[in-house]
Specification:
About 5% of the residues have low confidence. The chain starts with a helix and ends with a helix. Helix 12 crosses helix 17. The protein contains 18 helices and no strands. By secondary structure, the protein is mostly helical.
């Protein structure tokens, strides 16, 4: 057992102190990430929007974040990334503090949307910072560790959030804001500006140093079309992923009456628990597998899990088995997407590239709830889960073709 643990943790050695600090920040920040996982239920159960209206709201919210992502990417390449993260997330936390002291209404929904926009400004800087602090050689391991930190917090957050949702909604918003501020405090104290901007010159940075910063990010993407193809294929994956945060909680609420939020909270906590243990295991198992091939494997696991969601009805055991498989697929996809983007992005453009690609892929998450909300008005959950599984097959085929192209380049 000890030898197995040593092998699994071997990938996480010698990553640099900054990566370990970011790992701790991820844990703390995500321990209080209560709002977004329950956003659909907040809209339907507390603000009393219909399923279709809730899906439309999320679509509008996602569209609203597009300018903020572009702005955040530009700021991340021009200014110190830590400052971009700090300012935007403090403003987002203030929005959540406000939600804790106002009644549930459309005004609350608008403030939640404002918080989401502000938080999204920081996302390109966070991704670019993580890439700047790694090299081609250790990037997969570092991104795996950071994702592990995210999900250590996720084990706790949904379980607490599910219980707060019903009777203590204000504490849900307060907890999210407070943990954000704690994480930012650690960022300010332990990660100094010079450490962020002074990165060891690695093999990928030597080549990208020759790239002129005067080119537009569109020109850079046209020079590296594989990033565009990747983003379009990940659109399909993200469309499928949105069913986890939209279709599944609605299904549970309908099948288990008033206990849907609590059950979804337990399943989300279980998701985090599985991710916690499968992340180092998959990082070790797939350490020599190309990122795109690992994403293909993740898509296969998505298909199996979604078919099981369609067959589960009121069988709680099947839900937990399906979430187990889904979680492993999620780990394989998420921990390999970031390294692939970073490995193919010039260092001077990482902020902007990490703003544009999430816009394309995030469009899948945006239209997912909107389309699903309409379809579920006229179709069953079972038919929809099977349809999503067929859609993922298309994504698998495209990703596999992209992997072959990457191997030949």
């Amino acid at each position: 057992m000890y030898n197995l643990f040593r092998k699994l943790t071997q990938n996480y050695k010698n990553l640099g102190s900054n990566i370990y600090i970011l790992f701790i920040i991820r844990i703390i920040s995500n321990m209080g990430a209560f709002v977004y996982p329950l956003l659909f239920l907040i809209l339907t159960q507390k603000i009393h929007l219909s399923k279709a209206q809730s899906g439309l709201f999320i679509l509008i919210l996602s569209i609203s974040t597009v300018p903020s992502l572009l702005i955040g990417g530009k700021l991340a390449d021009r200014y110190e990334k830590k400052k971009v993260i700090l300012i935007s997330q403090i403003c987002g936390a203030i929005c959540y503090f406000t939600c804790a002291f106002i009644p549930t209404s459309m005004i609350m929904a608008v403030i939640i949307r404002s918080a989401s926009i502000l938080y999204s400004v920081a996302n390109p800087a966070i991704d670019a910072l993580s890439a700047d602090l790694t090299t081609n050689e250790n990037r997969k391991s570092a991104f795996s560790l950071l994702y592990l930190g995210t999900n250590i917090g996720t084990i706790i957050a949904p379980v607490i959030g599910g219980f707060l949702f019903k009777k203590r909604l204000s504490l849900l918003f307060l907890g999210d804001a407070i943990t954000t501020l704690i994480g930012l405090t650690l960022l300010v104290i332990f990660i100094k500006g010079p450490q962020i901007e002074t990165v060891a010159v690695s093999s990928d940075q030597k080549s990208t140093a020759e790239t002129s910063n005067n080119k537009s990010v569109i020109a850079i993407l046209l020079e590296k079309p594989i990033l565009i193809y990747f983003a379009l294929t990940m659109f399909i994956y993200q469309f499928a992923y949105s069913q986890w945060t939209f279709t599944l909680p609605l299904q549970l609420e309908d099948y288990f009456e008033n206990n849907g939020a609590q059950i979804y909270g337990l399943l989300s906590g279980f998701n985090g628990f599985v991710v916690l243990f499968s992340t180092p295991l998959l990082a070790f198992t797939l350490r020599k597998v190309k990122p795109l091939k690992s994403i293909v494997y993740g898509g296969i696991m998505y298909i199996i899990a979604f078919i099981m969601f369609g067959l589960s009805d009121q069988n709680m055991y099947l839900y937990f088995v399906a979430v187990f498989i889904f979680s492993a697929g999620l780990v394989s996809i998420t921990t390999n997407s970031g390294p692939f983007i970073a490995n193919n992005s010039p260092a001077a453009y990482r902020g902007r590239i990490n703003s544009i690609i999430p816009i394309i892929t995030g469009a899948g998450s945006a239209v997912g709830p909107f389309i699903t909300g309409i379809i579920l008005e006229i179709s069953s959950y079972k038919v929809w889960w099977f349809t999503i599984s067929l859609i993922i097959v298309i994504g698998l085929i495209l990703m596999n073709l992209l992997n072959r192209k990457d191997m030949m380049s």
